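During the practical work, I worked with a single protein chain and the tokens that describe its fold, as given directly below.
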Amino acid sequence: MNTPAIQAKKEGRQRSLSTRKALQIALKSLKVRLGRSLLVTGGIVLAIGFLTYILVTNALAGNVAVRGSAELIARLGREGVSVAADAADKRIETYWMIGLALLISFVGIMNAMLMSVTERFREIGTMKCLGALDSFIIKLFMLESTLQGIAGTLAGVAVGVVLSYAEAFFTYGAETWRLLPVTALLKMLGFCFAAGTLLTVGGAVYPARQAARMQPVDAMRSDV
């Protein structure tokens, strides 16, 4: 049988489709399916924006007692704003809110990616008939997901920081800018960026594997 030869030929074709080529195809696919792409990206923006807002707001509030001036602390006391450290139950509640937001976003991303696979049955079947291996199909979907994750995460982090600092400015005034050290802020933003990117990539793993396992004949025969 010529099975090894056929497999080697397919692998050669797969090698010719480099990551650069896969990236070009992924960018074109995102442009063609702009509505679906914006849906996935919007979910990431909301989730990471909420995560960033919660982390930065809590950090600003927690640093008032340490870095805030006596005048600020006195004013907040008169206004009934507590400057004490958050209670344990409040921190737990915050963590639950963050976890729930991330979970909802993860499920939404996975659902959107599965719908993308369904809409692209014929496209996937055509690529596999032309010699694309499963690894290339997975790479294509993962690249699309990563691009959306990076864009959505950057936008979400920006939105979260702007909202948290705008709210803090009305509460703490000009002292807002020195309540949170730059190094601490950068660590939070780095965590939020990593969480958003991993969230998107993780949500695309199952849909990408489903697309890669699709039989070319079944995909080409589908009327979806």
Summary: DSSP finds eleven helices and no strands in the chain. The radius of gyration is 24 Å. Residues 13-221 form one domain.
